[in-house]
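Run log, item B.
One chain of 227 residues. Sequence copied directly from the ordering sheet:
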Amino acid sequence: MTHEGIDLYACAACGTAFMHPLPTAEEVTGIYDDSYDGATTSYFAKVDKKIRRSRRRMRYLSRFIQGGRFLDIGCNGGFMVEAARERGFDAHGLDIDGVSIAYARRHYPNNAFFHGTAESFAAGPEVPRFDLVYCSEVIEHLPDVQGFAAAVAGLLRPGGVFFVTTPDISHWRRPRDLLAWDAFCPPSHCIYFNPGSLRLLLERHGLRVVRRRLAFKPGIKLLCRRA
């Protein structure tokens, strides 16, 4: 399939769909440099709603792990990080958008925030292991999902929990016309998983899927443990 000069392919073995060529890491960074107009649009225009949603999700995740170190990969304005701190976690967040990180540091100063990628964070000196790593609607933006999954596995302590969400290209409610799907937005979203292909990726890196949450909208929600 070709759309506006972008070719989309699907793996014959697992069904994962992806752009070709995939964007470079530098191109991805450029896409998300101040992508919310000085932290005023999108999530930042509905902060109260985001905080309430983050607290609900932390209540759910606390059923599986009650405390320790928490990391949100793609933390945006730090809303989930603050909700984790409120639940008693030593809370950390990272994002490639420096403006979002500046907002998070300004509004939620009791948490730790890192400007960069999961890979660069994991490669840093004296990086702690985390008990809970959270990553919502991020992996579909990444050109190197193998490197990302390896970084996540390296950041988790053995037995630690990884919770990930992403659009589901195989979901029964996805529009038949791919162009009508609101999650189809290359080059921002450059890779599209189905539940089986995402499980295959994660388990290849020692992240064993233990629960899949029902998603009424076309999405995947997986809870994993580090082997």
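Observations after the first pass:
- The mean pLDDT is 94.
- The chain has one domain: 2-226.
Flagged for discussion on Thursday.
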